[in-house]
């Protein structure tokens, strides 16, 4: 890149109104450190828990925290801004009338590192589409569908892909006797539209079901109840290729839970050493290739774009059962997505660069 070439102006968007606010902040710090600053002029924009957008300094504690610190964006620590809805002039405007700064200039691309509702669920994607801004990741439909596990499973099953037994419980409802017999014990109770294992409970006795519903409904009134799948927990990353020839899958990785929780909960993911991550997973070649093919098939079934992490189980018989598709996986130091791509030959810096280049290539509009 020549000295006269302007750097790409990139908004790194993080925080947000969901229960995954802190993980989003830590992910943003990881991406910020990985981006090539000779190519990208980065504007860190945090969204506080109430929804205010603020430009923060790069050395903000929110962006330098490690996972266990669980940081929070504070609007008082930055300059409050708004995104213009005019697609002919995509830019950030300073909201504070007393500030000498009024306009932060044109924005070229957005990296929306938002996890959960009000970000990863198609809402921010719709706003960016209206504003005429290219962004990293899937569009409105794929983001919304992958976030809602009920509809995600419906589409995967309709595409001929394997999903486990489940049911949905809405406010005022509980499991019927028929559903209990179908699912058996144990079951996993989780928010239908959440992530980072927040609000998830393993239920080994029906007497504990109401407590599990209460935990899940603290994040989402719609609750998913899934039958436990006996098998190895495998995750696989998917990326689009820059040459437009379709998605490719990373090497698979395996999660082995070692904590007393009995599943890969929030504590094991981000706070304690409650799980062992094997990257790559020790699987036979034929099974590895089936895992990778299933990951790309799920990605395409949901119309994903840019990236996704596909989670699945491999049973003792070698069958694959899809669990979830995550359209904006974590980018923390312990996150699986950057680890599987590093093991596939794409380090963190190259991974972030590829994601931004894909966003710039795809531009705005339908994807």
Q: What's the arrangement of secondary structure elements?
A:
Blueprint: E1 8-15, H1 21-34, E2 40-47, E3 53-55, H2 61-64, E4 79-83, E5 91-94, E6 103-106, E7 109-112, H3 123-131, H4 140-147, H5 149-158, E8 166-169, H6 177-183, E9 187-191, E10 201-203, H7 209-217, E11 223-227, E12 232-240, E13 247-249, E14 253-257, H8 266-271, E15 275-278, H9 285-301, E16 307-314, E17 320-326, H10 336-343, H11 348-362
Structure write-up:
The protein is α+β, with helices and mostly antiparallel strands. 29% of the residues lie in helices and 24% in strands. It has 11 helices and 17 strands. Strand 5 (91-94) and strand 6 (103-106) form a beta hairpin. The two termini are 28 Å apart.
């Amino acid at each position: 890149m020549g000295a006269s070439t302007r750097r790409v102006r990139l908004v790194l968007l993080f925080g947000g109104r969901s229960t995954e606010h802190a993980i989003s902040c830590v992910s943003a710090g990881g991406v910020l450190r990985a981006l090539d600053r000779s190519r990208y002029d980065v504007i860190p924009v945090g969204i506080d828990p109430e929804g205010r957008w603020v430009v923060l300094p790069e050395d903000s504690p929110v962006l330098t925290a490690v996972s266990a610190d669980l940081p929070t964006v504070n609007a008082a620590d930055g300059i409050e801004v708004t995104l213009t809805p005019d697609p002919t002039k995509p830019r950030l405007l300073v909201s504070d009338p007393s500030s000498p700064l009024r306009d932060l200039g044109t924005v070229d691309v957005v990296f929306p590192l938002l996890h959960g509702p009000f970000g990863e669920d198609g809402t921010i994607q719709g706003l960016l589409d209206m504003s005429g801004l290219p962004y990293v990741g899937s569009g409105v439909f794929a983001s919304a569908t992958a976030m809602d596990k009920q509809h995600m499973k419906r589409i995967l099953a309709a595409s001929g892909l394997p999903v486990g037994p489940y049911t949905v419980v809405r406010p005022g409802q509980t499991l019927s006797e028929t559903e209990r017999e179908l699912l058996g014990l144990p079951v996993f109770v989780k928010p239908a539209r959440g992530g980072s294992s927040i609000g998830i409970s393993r239920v080994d006795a029906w007497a504990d079901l109401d407590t599990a519903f209460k935990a899940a409904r603290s994040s989402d009134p719609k609750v998913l109840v899934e039958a436990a799948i006996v098998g190895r927990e495998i995750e696989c990353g998917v990326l689009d290729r820059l040459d437009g020839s379709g998605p490719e899958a990373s090497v698979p990785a395996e999660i082995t839970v070692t904590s007393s929780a009995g599943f890969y909960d929030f504590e094991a993911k981000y706070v304690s050493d409650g799980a062992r991550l094997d990257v790559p997973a020790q699987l036979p070649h034929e099974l590895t290739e089936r895992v990778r093919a299933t990951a790309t098939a799920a990605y395409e079934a949901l119309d994903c774009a840019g990236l996704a992490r596909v989670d699945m189980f491999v049973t003792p018989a070698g069958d694959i059962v899809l669990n979830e598709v995550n359209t904006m996986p974590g980018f923390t130091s312990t996150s699986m997505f950057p680890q599987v791509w590093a093991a596939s030959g794409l380090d963190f810096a190259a991974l972030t660069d590829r994601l931004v280049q894909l966003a710039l290539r795809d531009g705005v509009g339908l994807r």
